[in-house]
Design a protein that fits this description.
The protein is an alpha+beta fold and about 775 residues long. Helices cover about 20% and strands about 30% of the residues. Among the domains are: about 265-295 and about 305-425, no CATH class; about 480-730, 3-Layer(aba) Sandwich (Rossmann fold). The chain has an eight-stranded mixed sheet, sandwiched between helices. Strands 6, 7, 8, 9 and 12 form a five-stranded antiparallel sheet that branches. Strands 2-3-4-5 form a four-stranded antiparallel sheet.
């Protein structure tokens, strides 16, 4: 253990030390160009390390921004396990393992381009979906890459947007088809009247935004059996829940398990199933979907469990796909409620309280529970990466520890006793992985960029196998640390703090607070997401940066915003008392949900922030409320603002609680970085109100793209925009780039306006070109 730990520390020290080896500061371009294993705001489905079933290979997938191509570059890298084992046992010999680029794509401006990467059952190849564009449509196509020949072959036709799939081999697979997205606006008859009732404002103004082709006859469930393609169910008969569908092909290839909407579901009975802890306040509608068995020969469907699947009420375990036993007689259901068809009141209450990982014996119909799921705000919540049968009476559960309980065991093993009960037995590692002579894992922390490390189990020694970002050795990163504080409500916060390179104790630095989540297991380069956040690039400019999450205890209630403001205030107070930051020079960045939190903060706290920036989020304002009719935004807005904004009482609550009605109190200059015209319209209300009130506000429309930004140029503009904004307002500095002259002339005008609003107070610091 001592040797292994020493070697790991040596790896980190040699590879990522930010001392004498540094040559230049970290920039926004460096952040955009980082190769990441978990990207686009999501983890890696199935885990970062994807072993082939025969364990001869493992694959990893990376994405990085290519500014030279203005596209994300996605790559499937292939390692031979034998080569890695040879290296860790004989590291003194030349020939470190070099991964093979099995698939590499950078052919669209937005990503991710490669998704749903899985191995074929015989280990001969890898299947995945790829983002494509034809002459008319945007869609996802299913592909297979052969490990031996490196040939890449399309398994589905163009213009069929593939969602979920399952593949045994290249002649036996199933997949669902959605109507593709049109690339151009549909042509309307100028002589015809158009009924808009029930449609959203966005579908009228931006007709190509997520508006799929209508009358797409190919939609539904498809199967390829023995090389013959057939349309098993049309879209009417194959009514899968959006985003959480699943397909699991039987061992004999004759049937598939899918999650589908239940016709004539007993709504009143199923409404008794509880939401996860803390999610009761959201009052989410019933998702009456459940597991079905579909015969691929005739399309007949059979309901497997007379209860909703676990995604009802948002019981996120992140795994829905069922798993078959080898003989095809049993199913592992990773997320299902149990029917309420028992008499015992205690058992009924237990079944109502949460879903389970469960085993279904198909012949007898016996449903037995293995493990109760924990989700929502439960402190012991977890995510499931995979479940499978080791044998007919042994089940392995592999956990995804990237977000929750990272220090807990990665797997649990359960055995069914003669009475039919499942009990956990010894073992905390998947038996298939335990048999291997090496342990391969991603190694990452807030200070350590992601890399692949292998441990030789015989000698307990660890070795760096692959560094996807060797360029960072030439860059001064500064140091990050995990910090904690308690706010005035008693809530305990955890966040990541990045100090500027060359940090000097006793010096008070400007502070920028970044929002929307924190993971201590993630390298803190930009932020928790790749939209607008620029932690180390800001730190390289002499600014302390804190990446923080949120207090979700009172989400979707009138306490949501005050809870977040209390966190902001507690953080600034803590760092100011420690002498680390100047409380008069604090900025904040909001994105998505935290746009609302930032707007609420600057509208309710007069002196907390010296500058603020928001990008592409919700405001829970009146204009957004009316624009969002029929979109579901009204549910959260009503709960947060104390009712509907109609009638004396409802309007009075909105006037008191909605930030947009209190923007007259704003002192901090606000930057809005909005991707595309639809985002500009969505957040137009705070800009227009502040503009009308003659308060410093700047609205910049970035190129359109994804909500979690994946386009390199868009990401660079957002990060650079925030860097410039906070250097200007917190440090009085301007970038001398002549291309930015107009920007700074505009901001100096805003500074003059701010000084006038404050009674002609003089600028605290000189504007300097650096």
């Amino acid at each position: 253990m001592i040797l292994r730990t020493a070697l790991v520390f040596m790896i980190s020290a040699l590879a990522f030390a930010s001392s004498g080896f540094a040559q230049r500061p970290f920039t926004a371009k460096d952040d955009v160009g980082l190769a990441l294993f978990e990207y686009a705001g999501i983890g890696a489905p199935g885990g970062v390390i994807k072993y082939s079933p025969d364990a001869r290979y493992f694959a990893v997938v990376t994405e990085r921004g290519r500014l030279d191509l203005n596209a994300p570059e996605d790559t499937i890298w292939l390692f031979r396990t034998e080569d890695v084992l040879r290296f860790v046992r004989h590291p003194q010999l030349p020939g470190a393992p070099t991964p093979l680029r099995l698939v590499q794509m950078a052919d669209d401006r937005d990503g991710p381009l490669i998704e749903n990467v899985r191995w074929l059952a015989d280990s001969s190849g890898i299947v995945f979906t790829r983002l494509r564009k034809s002459s008319c449509c945007k869609f996802h196509q299913l592909y297979a890459a052969d490990v031996g020949t490196h040939e890449i072959r399309a398994l589905t036709p163009e213009d069929q947007d593939v969602g979920e799939f399952d593949v045994h081999d290249q002649t036996h697979y199933v997949y669902e088809v959605n109507a593709p997205l049109p690339l151009g606006a549909p042509k309307e008859d100028p002589r015809a009247a158009i009924a808009l009732t029930g449609k959203t404002l966005w579908s009228l103004l931006f007709p190509t935004m997520e508006q799929r082709l209508t009358d797409f006859d190919a939609a539904g469930l498809w199967a390829v059996i023995g090389g013959e393609r057939r349309h098993v169910l049309n879209v009417g008969a194959y009514n899968a829940p959006p985003y959480d569908s699943s397909l699991s092909l039987s061992p004999d290839g004759r049937s598939v398990v899918a999650t589908l909407k239940v016709e004539h579901a007993p709504v009143e009975l199923w409404a008794r199933y509880k939401a996860p802890p803390g999610y009761e306040k959201f009052k989410l509608p019933l998702d009456a979907s459940s597991y079905y068995l579909i015969d691929l020969a005739n399309g007949s469907k059979r309901l497997l469990v007379n209860a909703p699947y676990g995604m009802n009420q948002d019981w996120h375990s992140y795994l829905v796909k069922a798993s078959w036993s080898a003989d095809g007689q049993s199913l592992l259901l990773p997320n299902t409620f149990f029917p309420l068809d028992v008499a015992d009141p205690k058992e009924i209450a237990e079944r109502e309280s949460h879903p389970y990982i469960a085993v279904l014996r198909l012949k007898s119909g016996q449903l037995s529970r293995i493990l109760a799921l924990k989700a929502g705000l439960d402190k012991e919540r977890y995510a499931v990466q995979d479940v499978r049968f080791e044998d007919d009476t042994t089940v392995v559960v592999d956990f995804d520890r990237s977000n929750y309980l990272p220090d807990q065991p990665p797997a649990a093993i359960f055995h069914q006793d003669p009475q039919g009960n499942w009990r956990q037995i010894d073992g905390t590692e998947d038996p298939r992985l335990a048999e291997l002579p090496i342990k391969v894992e991603k190694r990452e922390s807030i200070n350590q960029p992601p890399l692949i490390v292998a441990e030789d189990k015989r000698s307990n020694s660890s070795h760096l196998i692959w560094d996807p970002n060797p360029q960072l050795k030439e860059i001064e990163l500064g140091l990050a640390e995990v910090i904690h504080w308690k706010d005035r409500t008693g809530f305990e916060w955890e966040a990541g703090l990045v100090k500027p390179p060359g940090y000097a104790a006793g010096k008070r630095y400007p502070l920028v607070i970044q929002t929307h989540g924190f993971l201590k297991t993630q390298f803190l380069s930009g932020g928790i997401y790749t939209t607008a956040f620029a932690a180390r690039a800001l730190a390289a400019q002499g600014i302390v940066v804190v990446q923080m999450g949120w207090n979700a205890n009172n989400f979707a209630t009138p306490r949501e915003a005050p809870d977040q403001v209390a966190g902001f205030e507690g953080l600034v107070r803590k760092l100011a008392q420690e002498g680390l930051v100047d409380p008069a020079r604090v900025g904040v960045i909001g994105f998505s949900r935290s746009v609302y939190h930032v707007l609420a903060a600057i509208a309710s706290t007069e002196h907390l922030f010296a500058a603020a920036s928001v990008t592409d989020g919700v405001t829970f304002g009146y204009l957004e409320y009316l624009q969002g009719v029929d979109t579901g935004l009204d549910r959260d807005a009503d709960a947060i603002n104390g009712g509907k904004p109609f009638g004396p009482d409802g309007l009075r609550n909105w006037l008191a609680r909605s930030p947009e009605f209190n923007l007259d109190a704003v002192k901090a200059p606000l930057l809005l970085l909005q991707p595309g015209p639809d985002s500009v319209l969505a957040d137009w209300e705070p800009y227009a109100a502040l503009r009308y009130l003659k308060k410093p506000v700047d609205l910049i429309m970035l190129p359109a793209g994804t909500h979690v930004m994946t386009n390199p140029a868009q990401r660079l503009l957002a990060e650079t925009g925030n860097m410039d904004w906070f250097r200007f307002w917190l440090k009085g500095e301007e970038d001398p780039d002549p291309a930015k002259a107009e920007q700074y002339a505009r901001w100096r005008g805003l500074k003059k306006l701010q000084d006038e609003n404050h009674g002609g107070t003089k600028e605290k610091g000189k504007t300097a070109a650096k």
